[in-house]
Design a protein that fits this description.
The protein is α+β, with helices and mostly antiparallel strands and 178 residues long. It has 2 helices and 12 strands; from the N terminus they run ββββββββββααββ. It has helices spanning 110-126, 131-142; strands at 11-16, 21-25, 32-36, 43-49, 52-57, 63-66, 72-76, 85-89, 95-99, 105-109, 152-158, 170-172. The strands form 2 sheets. Strands 1, 2, 3, 4, 5, 8, 9, 10, 11 and 12 form a 10-stranded antiparallel beta sheet that branches. A two-stranded antiparallel sheet has the order 6-7. It is elongated and about 55 Å long.
């Protein structure tokens, strides 16, 4: 793949065309999540070598890391083996980020966030928090109201056979959103 057309070292937004969500690292967490179109975060692609890149949060300088358990997190401010991704393109020029650590495809998953949200609400209720306190905490952590459960998703990896799905992730420039 010709990497000369990829905007390195400038803020970009990674957007899933299929899910209509943007990759984000919410303030105060290390979770990599995919949120609705109007909620986005600037990320920076850094070229490491050949087709290898890292994805860095412009907000806190943490690098997206691929975990063996299927989760992706913005974990470290240092580049590690789990932070390395290769970029592949399909016939429609959609870009795919393939973690070098596992070889899977980076993609959004709505199911994990729903379970985590439900588990958190239950724990907060058991701890004696009021419904208003629970809503404030959940809203802050998940960046959406508790009634909007489907609007948030975690970034996960899928087996590389899934890369045949059209239009997984594309990049757009922040200035193009205005």
């Amino acid at each position: 793949m010709d990497m000369s057309d990829i905007p390195f070292d400038v803020p970009v937004i990674l957007h899933s065309i299929r899910k209509h969500k943007n990759l984000q690292n919410a303030v105060g967490t290390k979770e990599a999540r995919c949120l609705e179109d109007n909620v986005y975060e600037q990320l920076v692609l850094r070229h490491v070598d050949d087709n290898t890149v890292v994805i860095q949060s412009a907000c806190n300088n943490r690098y997206l890391q691929d975990r063996t358990n299927g989760h992706c997190v913005f974990g470290s401010i240092r580049i590690r083996d789990q932070s390395l991704f290769t970029i592949e393109a399909n016939s429609t020029s959609s870009l795919f980020f393939m973690p070098c650590f596992t070889g899977n495809v980076l993609q959004c998953d709505n199911e994990l966030v729903v379970k985590d949200r439900q588990r958190l609400i239950l724990e907060l209720a058991k701890g004696g928090k009021t419904p208003d306190e629970i809503e404030q905490i959940v809203t802050r952590l998940f960046d959406s109201p508790t009634v909007g459960v489907p609007s948030s998703a975690y970034a996960i990896q899928l087996p590389s056979t899934s890369k045949n799905l059209p239009n997984i992730i594309y990049m757009t420039y922040p200035n193009a959103l205005s």
